[in-house]
Amino acid sequence: MRRVLVTGGSGFFGGILKRRLLAAGYAVVNIDLVADVDTLPNLVSHQGDIRDAALLARVFADGQFEAVFHCAAMLAHDTISEDELWSSNVDGTRRIAEACRAAGVSRLVFISSNCLWASNLGHEVAEDEPPAPVELYGRSKLEGERVLAEFPDLAVVTIRCPTIIDGGRLGLLAILFEFILDGKRVWVVGDGQNRYQFIYAQDLATACIQTLGYEGSDLFHIGSENVVSLRRVYEAIIAAAGTKARVAELPKAPTIAAMKLAHTLRISPLGPYHYRMIAEDFIFDTRRIRERLGWRPTLTNEQMMVEAFRYYAAGRKEIHARTDVSAHSKPAAMGVIRLLKWIS
């Protein structure tokens, strides 16, 4: 049976990819700091750190992998130190590449991010445009890309993706969903006409699997198509929820100033990337992945966000009781946003 390794396979997207690979007939090995709740045929899971060279040596020694899907990453809004985030995302990526080289695994798929930018470039962003991250997570993902470039013997396919959405995606989205479910006003900054692209997790998993038949290294931008305004996305969720929630506007300049102050005081889960992009357009140019992989998206922003909301609404109580899970699989702490909810 063809075998693959997934790092971060206990997390939100890693778990989806893991299950898709199993369904496609692969034997899957998972490494994650978080325990894997799945016990499935042809799945072997290791709870451990990707920076643990001895653990990696044991895992790779168990058998030849056709490919490694490197999905593991620590997030800026999780409760970890900056040094730990950088070490996990950068040093961990290097350890994975070194283990691939030592074991003769020639194919690695790296999940990167649109957080490599934090400004509206005024057009769809192509793969050859110079990144300019403004916060630690984005810088760590960019450095991860640079680390992998030091391994020319590996066929590395990097997929830069926007926010990944599906049933089960929580984190900061859970805050939005709580406002809507409780019938509160949902705030946009400015007029809410800015367009921000997402990617459906199943579509991203499809792209990852398609890379198994791709020759050589490459870099792809991925995302949904027919991207509408954030206001329209929120209105679609509210319509599906059937609550008294409504979209309301906050003035752009003072709101962003307040978000910056809240971040400085460490009382908000929103960081520099969020307050820079909250009222801006950002869309990837996806022509390269369409042409070279034959990939196509299946869900729009509205459709995938409604799916994610319904998951939250169906299991809200259990979701808020979660502890030992990945950052995307539990609600983010509201911090000062709780005050905004009280007055909404």
UniProtKB/TrEMBL annotation:
Domain (NAD-dependent epimerase/dehydratase): residue spans on this chain: 4-213
Pfam family, one: Epimerase
Origin superkingdom: Bacteria
InterPro entries: Epimerase_deHydtase, Lipid_A_modif_metabolic_enz, NAD(P)-bd_dom_sf
Designated name of the protein: Nucleoside-diphosphate-sugar epimerase
